[in-house]
Design goal:
The chain is α+β, with helices and mostly antiparallel strands and 198 residues long. It has two domains: 78 residues, Phosphorylase Kinase, domain 1 (2-Layer Sandwich); 115 residues, Transferase(Phosphotransferase), domain 1 (Orthogonal Bundle). Helix content is 45%, strand content 23%. The N and C termini lie far apart (54 Å).
């Protein structure tokens, strides 16, 4: 297997699974954690990511397909999406598609947890995919959905966020309420900054 990337808690490896190109996401041991705790956390997070990905896929979200889970080695084998990160391809259409995919995820009752332009991919056909579900969780709380939107908002310009929200509104019936919650979180943030400055 060839090294393809590294995140906070896992490394990505290019590989083949059942003769087809795939990615292996391997959760590596953290030396600073007690061995028993580390083993349990890596097992739980690998299983959870597989479940969340499968649920999202079944509900129409464009995301990698889980091919295999190796709990002993803490490895998750998924389909490899050929393309480029959204951060390198911020067209109006791609941004709207990204909004649609995140809205579909929210409609499924899942929040992504790290929804920046680095966790969407534009494939060679121009379709946008959601990737890296390592921080995803089950929730339909407005606050958590709004946090996903705010993470994306912070990674683009205001006109680009508007393009993203146009796509989001097409797929999420609660988009107005979620957007209001984004504004509420931003107000709280401004209040905290002002309070700290006094």
């Amino acid at each position: 297997m060839k090294h393809a990337g590294k995140g906070a808690e896992a490394e990505l490896l290019d590989c083949r699974f059942m003769g087809e190109p795939a990615l292996c996401k391997r959760r590596v041991r953290k030396q600073y954690r007690l061995h028993a705790l580390d083993y349990r956390l890596r097992s739980e997070r690998t299983r959870k990511e597989a479940r969340v990905l499968s649920a999202a896929k079944q509900n129409g979200v464009r995301c990698p397909l889980v091919k295999h889970v190796d709990e002993t080695r803490k490895e998750l084998f998924i389909t490899k999406i050929e393309g480029e990160l959204l951060r390198n391809s911020l067209s109006k259409d791609a941004l709207a598609q990204a909004g649609q995919q995140l809205a579909l995820l929210h409609e499924t009752g899942i929040v992504h947890g790290d929804s920046t332009t680095s966790n969407f991919m534009v494939d060679r056909a121009g379709k946008v995919w959601l990737i890296d579900f390592g921080l995803a969780d089950y929730s339909d709380a407005l606050e958590e959905q709004a946090t996903d939107l705010l993470l994306f908002k912070k990674s683009v310009s205001l006109p680009q966020f508007k393009d993203f929200m146009a796509g989001y509104a097409q797929e999420n019936k609660k988009s107005g309420a979620v957007n209001k919650q984004v504004e509420e979180i931003e107000k709280r943030g401004r209040y905290v900054v002002r309070a700290m400055a006094k």
